[in-house]
């Protein structure tokens, strides 16, 4: 059995988006439920999702473990796995880790760009690694089965997380920086350490992480995938598109600024180009998985390897979470 | 005019404590209002304090600036200045800095032992200094007139705060580590940099910060004060007793553990001695200011210098806050 999984989307959710994901053949999507929200605000997001599940039950349902990916495949639906891009919903309370797990959380970034109570984000000047509270939280995430996600974290913090976590961790959405030196893209050494520990990298389709940004070619992307497979092994890479379909530009502004500054921050953008960047034309939504499939075959991956990258590798990773 | 100021107390507040502080002649006390509380919980503390002010208006009132210290002196009362031992009440929201100022906050530690969103605490393994959010918050504290307090912070973070803050900062309650190597006590170099920038050190009377702890002698304490004055200048030191009068041991446990760990942390104590340490017999409450006065004269300070240490230096520091 082969699975298709997009391990990071943050779309403006609607029936249309779920239909597109079905058309793309996605059996599972890891969706970002919160960026800067606290516990109470996360609970509101869960309510919103419960309505989406109710109104689109022919298309989606809440995924809790790998069996739900098998179920989704059988029922021609997409299993939705909840994740956080920041640790703000657990506030400063270790007990909330179990609470968010019970509400469906299966992935949590320890940081989003800035310093958090758990670790350092990639936009900070210095990186002190995983904190005292962070160590406690990783233990709890391991116990429950919430994946440590370091996509937006600084490098030492990521090495720390790999070492501290008793289960493999993930970088759900980023690219290697040998290809394009975005602040958020990762070094060869880090990716090697990640895969040596059983961790996964989800290749991102967000223009700010791509060589030549919106003009990135499918050939260039697939060459990058081939080189990354050489570094990490072909079984440790998947897709985490970071797709923000139908989101207004106010959302990316809020992602970058939250409530932490009086001055405006442009993150990966600039003052002149502060909105969401244009998607490359071969991946304007999840139906672009087909273009990636063709591109990966063309670059020389075997069909089994291609299926691995498009979903089976993530499926196997999910299988390991609750072991 | 001479003023007596204790620039850090966290007592189990009652009429009895306010009477003792009056008996000690304290014109002002900087009180800890919160440790780990969030904004809403801080507001509850403000309500509790409003009741204390109402029920003890012959003894205390809320202090807002140095003029309230003069007023307290004239009216034989103690002006109470609010402070935070952690930045948790501002959560992740820059707008809350002004809100807490409006509610009376005049001192805020950027961290309490562990990493915060603003800086690193003294109990972390690594210290990345003041964070992106921290820089924004310091600017806002400077603008409003909230003193940056680094008593429980790690060293690089403290150097950063001194450099970033456009107003002098304070270490309201700690001692030099040449005298006693508590984790929280400070190096000569740091203290020198602090005083060069116009900052203040409040000498602590908490047994875990004292040489020989509960058995510390008044002579030893005053010798330390004399040596510290040589390092920092006699006008940059005061008293911040860290007095926790009448607090049950459950409170020190909560200070150390908050809600961040499933395992118990003993901080400066041990599993065997986990409660509040015994105060040295010459400072069991604020009336011990008299013993310090005598001790400082005996060690050779001039009477004006002694008055400076017992309160005038803090008074002058308060005077500079809203300039």
What does this structure look like?
The structure is a homodimer of 323-residue chains. Chain A is an alpha/beta fold. The first copy, chain A, has a single domain (5-109, 169-250, 280-321), classed as Metal-dependent hydrolases (TIM Barrel, Alpha-Beta Barrel). Chain A contains 11 helices and 9 strands. Chain A has helices spanning 15-23, 39-55, 66-75, 95-102, 132-144, 155-164, 188-196, 218-232, 249-257, 289-298, 303-321, and strands at residues 5-9, 28-34, 60-62, 78-84, 105-109, 147-149, 170-174, 200-203, 237-239. In chain A, the strands form 2 sheets. In chain A, strands 1, 2, 3, 4, 5 and 6 form a 6-stranded parallel beta sheet that branches. A 3-stranded parallel beta sheet of chain A has the order 7-8-9. In chain A, strand 3 (60-62), helix 3 and strand 4 (78-84) form a beta-alpha-beta unit. Chain A binds chain B through residues 36, 38, 88, 91-95, 114-117, 120, 123-129, 131-134, 136, 139-140, 156, 258-263, and chain B through 36, 38, 88, 91-95, 114-117, 120, 123-129, 131-134, 136, 139-140, 258-263.
């Amino acid at each position: 059995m082969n699975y298709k999984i997009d391990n990071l989307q943050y779309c403006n959710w609607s029936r249309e988006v779920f239909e597109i994901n079905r058309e793309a053949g996605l059996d599972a999507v890891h969706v970002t439920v919160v960026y800067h929200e606290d516990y109470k605000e996360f609970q509101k997001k869960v309510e919103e999702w419960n309505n989406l599940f109710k109104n689109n039950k022919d298309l989606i349902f809440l995924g809790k473990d790998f069996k739900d990916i098998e179920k989704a495949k059988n029922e021609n639906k997409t299993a939705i796995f909840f994740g956080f891009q920041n640790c703000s919903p657990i506030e400063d309370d270790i007990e909330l880790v179990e609470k968010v797990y019970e509400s469906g959380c299966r992935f949590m970034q320890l940081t989003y760009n800035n310093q958090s109570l758990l670790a350092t984000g990639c936009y900070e000047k210095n990186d002190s690694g995983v904190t005292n509270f962070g160590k406690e939280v990783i233990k709890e995430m391991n116990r429950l089965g919430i994946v440590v996600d370091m996509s937006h974290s600084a490098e030492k913090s990521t090495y720390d997380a790999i070492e501290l976590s008793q289960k493999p961790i993930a970088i759900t959405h980023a690219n290697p920086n040998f290809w394009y030196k975005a602040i958020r893209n990762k070094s060869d050494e880090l990716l090697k350490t990640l895969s040596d520990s059983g961790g996964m990298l989800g290749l991102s389709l967000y223009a700010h992480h791509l060589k030549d940004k919106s003009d990135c070619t499918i050939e260039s992307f697939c060459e990058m995938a081939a080189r990354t497979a050489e570094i990490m092994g072909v079984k440790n890479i998947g897709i985490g598109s970071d797709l923000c379909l139908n989101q207004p530009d106010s959302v990316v502004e809020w992602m970058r600024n939250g409530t932490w500054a009086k001055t405006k921050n442009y993150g990966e953008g600039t003052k002149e180009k502060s909105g969401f960047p244009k998607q490359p034309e071969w991946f304007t939504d999840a139906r672009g998985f087909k273009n990636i499939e063709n591109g990966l075959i063309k670059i020389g991956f075997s069909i089994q390897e291609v299926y691995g990258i498009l979903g089976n590798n993530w499926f196997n990773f999910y299988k390991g979470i609750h072991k």
